[in-house]
Amino acid sequence: MAPRTTASRAPRKTADGGSEARERLLRTASELFYAEGIHVVGVDRILAEAGVTRATFYRHFPGKEKLVEAYLGVEDANLRGALEGARSVTDDPVELVGLIIQGIAEDVARHHTRGCPFINAAAEYPDPDSGVRRAVDQHRAWFRGVLEEALTASGAKDPGTAAGQLVLLRDAALVGGYLDGWDTVRVAFVDAARQVAGLEPAA
User: Fold this and answer.
1) Using one digit for the tens of pLDDT, what is the confidence trace for 149-198?
2) pLDDT in tens, 6-40
3) Which CATH class is domain 64-203?
4) What contacts 47, CB < 8 A, 6 or more positions away?
5) Which pTM was predicted?
6) Do 123 and 78 contact (CB within 8 A), yes or no?
7) Selecting from 3.30.2350.10, 1.25.40.10, 1.10.10.60, 3.30.360.10, what CATH number does the domain 17-61 have?
8) What are the beta bridge partners of residue 13?
């Protein structure tokens, strides 16, 4: 029997050129990290549920913390994609701010019922110099910047302050939705967010 070639041992690729094993690892880890917490979920469990060997894991991630950073990267990319989707719907800056607020509400209701993945990760990684905390900080700085840009275009008064207030309101909505139930929190969040943004109350 002829020996396998290097090409035959190469990992399968996904449609976008990424490794199928890496995507499976990341998808499995993301689900477990968000549902149960990061430190409580060990690498062995992720490997077992993803059906991936330890050697393959280390080929893609030098250690668990890098996997956590990649998980936060997915969360960041999802939010960026949602905001780009809102931009594709309207050219009206005031309407865009309203869509962003509504998008935050829908995200809390549908995708983040266990709080904010970035706040949760920060609570488990107290060292401000860790890669995880840097990923959290970068995401929050980007999110606040996007809000300030949108509020400036909409003509909001003091858009920098309003952007900071919206970030805090989103934080509160994510935590409150988890603790108290989103049905209890939704109206308060949407009304307060629209008021901060200088928009008319929701119908």
Assistant:
1) 999 999 999 999 999 999 999 999 999 999 999 999 999 999 999 999 99
2) 333 333 333 333 589 999 999 999 999 999 999 99
3) mainly alpha
4) 25, 53, 54, 57
5) 0.86
6) no
7) 1.10.10.60
8) 19
Tens digits of per-residue pLDDT, 53-74? 999 999 999 999 999 999 999 9
Half-sphere exposure of 131 (CA within 13 A, CB side): 12
Which one, of 95, 193, 80, lies nearest residue 145 by Cα? Answer: 80
- The domain spans of the chain are 17-61, 64-203
Long-range contact list for 102-107, CB < 8 A, 24+ apart?
102/190, 104/170, 104/173, 104/189, 104/193, 105/173, 105/186, 105/189, 105/190, 107/79, 107/82
pLDDT of residue 203: 65
Q: How far apart are CA 199 and CA 72, in angstroms?
A: 31
Written as six digits, the tokens of 111 are: 């995708």
41: which 2 tokens? 């979920």
Chain position carrying tokens 């890496």:
22
